[in-house]
Amino acid sequence: MLRDKNLVPLSHQHQHALALCVRIERASPIPRSDLAAWQAEIDELVRNEIAIHFAAEEQVLFPAAKRLAELIPLVEELIEDHASLRVSFAQAGEHNLSAEQLSILASRLSSHIRKEERQFFERLQRLMGTEELAALGKKLAEALKDRTHACSVPTDATRLRAKGSG
């Protein structure tokens, strides 16, 4: 299903986070010497986008979705995902993740995003009318106004290289 224009800003942020997840997956196993750089990049994305994104979902999107009985279990699951991911984000911010934990975080974040895109947004668009989605879009735009529009630039440690090259 084509993404409703009122949800596109959230989908764009999902793409930024998914790109980081893919880069982590492709770089795994992460050498111990590169862990700090990867965790700093995660922390930057959290501060510039994810924290505001989660707040917009929790304060605007999820309450609106909870008015639709069919979506309540999924919304509750997504809220639990947010709480769990926040713990891992905090650990990354403190540079306390091992290479294995970093890979697990990337996998969990990717799964969460795909659940939102493929299940939640699809159902939300099917169940909400055009006017409801437009009103939701205005509230989301306001909630997302403080986000940073710049993408993270990989460092030497987090830049992907062809396999076998140094």
What would you say this structure looks like, in words?
This protein has 166 residues and is mostly helical. The chain has one domain (8-143): Up-down Bundle (Four Helix Bundle (Hemerythrin (Met), subunit A)), CATH 1.20.120. Helix content is 70%, strand content 0%. The protein contains five helices and no strands. The chain has helices at 8-27, 35-65, 72-93, 99-127, 130-143. It is elongated. It starts with 7 loop residues before the first helix and ends in a 23-residue tail after the last helix. The relative contact order is 0.21.
Topology:
Elements lengths: L7 H20 L7 H31 L6 H22 L5 H29 L2 H14 L23
The gist of it:
With 166 residues, this protein is an all-alpha fold.
Instruction: Return the CATH architecture.
Output: Up-down Bundle
Provide the CATH superfamily.
nmb1532 protein domain like
Give the count of helical stretches: 5
> Largest sheet, if any?
none
Q: How many beta-strand elements?
A: 0
Strand content: under 5%
Quickly count the domains: 1
Keywords for this entry:
166 residues, 0% strand, mainly alpha
